[in-house]
Amino acid sequence: MGTQLDNLAIELPSWAFGNSGTRFKVFGTPGTPRAVQEKIADAATVHRFTGLAPTVALHIPWDTVDDYRSLAGYAEEHGVKLGTINSNTFQDDDYKFGSLTHTDKTVRQKAIDHHLACIEVMNETGSRDLKIWLADGTNYPGQGDIRGRQERLAESLNTIYQRIGDDQRLVLEYKFFEPAMYMTDVPDWGTSYAHTLALGERAMVCLDTGHHAPGTNIEFIVAQLLRLQKLGSFDFNSRFYADDDLIVGAADPFQLFRIMFEVLRGGGLDDGSPVAFMLDQCHNVEAKIPGQIRSVLNVQEMATRAALVDVEALTVAQEAGDVLDANEVLMDAFYTDVRPRLAQWRTEHGLPANPMSAFAESGYQTTIDAERVGGTQSSWGA
Ligand code: PSV
Ligand code: MN
Question: Ligand 2 centroid vs 83 CA: distance in angstroms?
Fold first, then answer.
């Protein structure tokens, strides 16, 4: 394994350990955390078994606490750090018609103030990234002024960006639908790129793999944003139909391979790369902690296969116009089973060769199932 693969670190989302579901039902699960501390303990467990997940992303207000400094200390005691702060502005009645884009200045200011409060949280936790995903948008043609909303968005983002510290970044996530169904205010990478370009170099794009129309060539977007030095972070997950938030690599391992190939090609795993790798998933029917373990292993596995591509042979075939050879070089790497070498890598790093079975045998799940009784289970609250 080369240094690029040793650089792979995947941030876990705190919300993945809480209950989640669909608009039809949120199922409760034994052992589900009742507080952010228990989510962090679970995330740290994923890291302990895989060596791949040293940080945890928080969502504000879901993970609000009185003392963020001591929460950061708590995380460190468990062997992880706090990472990205997500500024959820999608569950407050005031934001029904928008947050940073709202026509009412008072509501806009409330949303801006919430982001400034998130920056204060980052100052306490030592987090680098403020991740903004907006549910803003409209359901019907004519409902809102598309252009006016863009202007207000630009102004609000600029106010927030002015407060981002020198070592901090603003990452703007795009999504082409949901909860708004006619138009969202940051629907695509181009819009996110335009806004972050206007803001400055500490503003970058967040690419959530579940936020594209079916058939979109995501690796193209990865290549382009890396080229433009604007790929700030990934929210990894996979989808069949909508924003399914399923285990990354589960629906389409080949797509994950192609994405990781472009990441490597564009220097996204080089030393000092600005690209943050995160999961943005939830586990509605499968066990949550093993779901996260499987996810980070999937990313590592496809990155490892992507690193096997014989780039020299690929270039020769591409430049010779040998379509079939070029494709075969790529597929050779994709079809290579790297699990034995990853098991060896883990053993060399003092990790269990098979994290899934090691976790199952560890008794951690039985312990939390027995201990976490009473209280209110954390949930995304939908
Ligand atoms: C929105 O669909 C999203 O991908 C954003 O990243 C949110 O922060 C996250 O999911 C949780 O709702
Ligand atoms: Mn996301």
Answer: 15
What would the mean pLDDT of 279-291 be, rounded to a whole number? 97
* Confidence class for position 314, pLDDT limits 50, 70, 90: very high
Q: Give, in order, the Cα–Cα distances in Å from 63 to each of 269, 342, 375, 382.
A: 29, 34, 16, 15
| Residues 359/289, Cβ–Cβ less than 8 Å | yes
Locate tokens 């098979």: which residue? 354
Mean pLDDT score, 230-256: 97
Residue 143 in 3-state DSSP? coil
* DSSP three-state, residue 185: coil
218: its two tokens: 């995501």
Which element (helix H / strand E) includes 20? none
Tell how far the Cα of 371 is from the centroid of ligand 2, in angstroms.
31
pTM, 2 dp: 0.98
Q: Which of 133, 136, 186, 279 to mutate to test the pocket of ligand 1 (most atoms within 8 A of CB)?
A: 133
What angle (nearest 5°) sits at the alpha carbon of residue 190, between those of residues 187 and 196? 100
> CA quadruple 370, 371, 376, 382: dihedral positive or negative?
negative
Residue 268 clears pLDDT 70, i.e. is over it: yes
Cβ–ligand 1 contact at 38 (below 6 Å): no
Q: Which domains does the chain have, with CATH numbers?
A: 3-307+352-371 (3.20.20.150)
Q: Is 11 in the pocket of ligand 1 (CB under 6 A)?
A: no
- The angle subtended at Cα 39 by Cα 45 and Cα 272, nearest 5°, is 65
pLDDT tens-digit readout, 18-43: 999 999 999 999 999 999 999 999 99
Find the angle CA(224)-CA(251)-CA(36) to the nearest 5 degrees.
Answer: 85
Residues paired with 19 in a beta bridge: 379
How many A from CA of 58 to the centre of ligand 2? 12
Mutate to test the pocket of ligand 1, among 132, 173, 177, 236 (most ligand atoms within 8 A of CB): 173
What is residue 1's predicted lDDT score, i.e. its pLDDT?
Answer: 62
Q: Say what percent of the chain tops pLDDT 90.
A: 98
What is the Å distance from ligand 2's center to 235 Cα?
Answer: 5
**HSE-up of residue 187 (Cα within 13 Å, Cβ side):** 14
